[in-house]
């Protein structure tokens, strides 16, 4: 299900002295099944942008087209469109409230008026997606779980709605390295198996480098650049100019090039760096 953002502008406190332009003439397209990373410094407009993509915010001007339909069109069924787009906020575990994991995950499907059998199937499906064993965790209180497990329960609650598009705002924020890796592995597997269109907002360039097919770089409410991770991370000066860094591997490659290692400027994945260093070592031309 493709998403197209067309000349989107959003102003807070419009018509007052406190007017703030959060998005300014933003346009880009997300293809069906694509994984797009949205990056930018704090205040660049990332969160405001993703809240337009499922209709939580209405643009001051411009359009958000979901599968060709204007999400804010006069005669569009906004509720039906929004149900196809799952949005996971930062720290979604703060929104858990039911007494068991299964009941919390079932909340959305129940509101869709599904049968009890279909709801149970949805809960099992969603728990499998986030790697939580149904028999072990379904009847437990979500508040007895670890922070990473609670976040996976919250994500499962969105997945149980079977969205065609999944939008995640900083899904690994505040997690320890183990919890972070589990969330990223889960998203990687979900995207590969289910071909769900995904958009992920993140401050971590290493997380984005691992998952994204394409990046949207934002600065001061505008799009600074759009491209593949390889194209974007090769532009370190541009990234620095908008308050961002590049992945750890890109930084290491830059240091190695300064030391005389013949490495391409667009390396950003650990496996790639390893492969190039082994080749240089075998050729005896590392320096």
Number of helices: 12
Q: Let me know the number of strands.
A: 10
For the terminal residues, how far apart are their CA atoms? 49 Å
Strand content: 15-25%
Residue share in helix = 40-55%
The H-and-E topology, N to C, reads as: EEEHEEHEHHHHEHEHEEHHHH
Average pLDDT level: 92
Task: Please give the largest β-sheet.
Answer: 6 strands, mixed
Q: What spatial order of strands do you see in the largest sheet? A: 6-7-8-3-9-10
Which runs of at least 5 residues are low in confidence (pLDDT < 50)? none
Gyration radius, rounded: 21 Å
Shape: globular
Structural class: alpha/beta
Keywords for this entry:
287 residues; alpha/beta; four-stranded antiparallel β-sheet; 40% helix
Give a topology summary.
Layout: E1 3-12, E2 20-30, E3 35-40, H1 46-52, E4 61-66, E5 69-70, H2 78-82, E6 85-88, H3 101-111, H4 116-129, H5 134-137, H6 147-159, E7 165-169, H7 177-194, E8 197-201, H8 205-211, E9 214-219, E10 222-227, H9 229-233, H10 236-241, H11 248-258, H12 270-283
Parallel strand pairs: 3-8, 3-9, 6-7, 7-8
Antiparallel strand pairs: 1-2, 1-4, 4-5, 9-10
Description:
With 287 residues, the protein is α/β, with parallel strands linked by helices. It has a domain at 247-287. The chain has helices at residues 46-52, 78-82, 101-111, 116-129, 134-137, 147-159, 177-194, 205-211, 229-233, 236-241, 248-258, 270-283; strands at residues 3-12, 20-30, 35-40, 61-66, 69-70, 85-88, 165-169, 197-201, 214-219, 222-227. The strands form two sheets. A six-stranded mixed β-sheet has the order 6-7-8-3-9-10, sandwiched between helices. A four-stranded antiparallel β-sheet has the order 2-1-4-5, with helices on one face. A hairpin with a 2-residue loop joins strand 4 (61-66) and strand 5. Helix 3 packs parallel to helix 6 (147-159), helix 4 packs across helix 6 (147-159) and helix 6 runs parallel beside helix 7.
